[in-house]
Amino acid sequence: MLQPRPTRLRPFAATLLCLLLPGQSSFSQASGQAPVTLPVRPTPTSLDPDQRILHLLSRFTFGPTPEDIATVRSMGPKSGIDKWFEQQLHPDRLPATASDNILNARLAEFPALQLPIDKLMNRFPNGAEIRQAANGKREIPKDPAIAAIYRYHIDLYEEKQAKKNEAAKDTPMSTPNSIAAPDMAMANSKPTPPDMESPTPLNSNQKSKKPALADPNRPEYSELLTKAIFELPPGQRVQRILAMQPAEYEQFRSSIKGPQKAQLTQDLTPAQRELLSAFDNPTRTVIEEQQSQRLLRDIYSSHQLQEVMTTFWLNHFNVYIHKNEETPYYLVSYERDVICPRALGNFEDLLVATAKSPAMLLYLDNHTSTGPNSPAAEKQKNRAALGKPAKATSPGLNENYARELMELHTLGVNGGYTQKDVTEVAKVFTGWTIDRPKNKTVQVGEFKFDETRHEPGKKTVLGHKIKESGEKEGLQLLHTLATSPATAHFISQKLATAFVSDTPPRSLIDRMAATFRSTKGDIPSVLRTMVKSPEFWAPDTYQAKVKTPLEYVVSAARASGAEVTNPQQLINQLNQMGMPLYSCIPPTGYSSKADAWVSTGALVTRMNFSLSLATNHFNGIKPGWNIAPDQVTNPVAVEQQLETRLIPTGISDKTRTAVLAQAQIQDQAQKPPSTTVASNVPVPAVPPSPAAQKAAAAQAAAIDRQNAQLAGLLLGSPEFQRR
Question: What is the pTM of this model?
Answer without folding.
Answer: 0.86
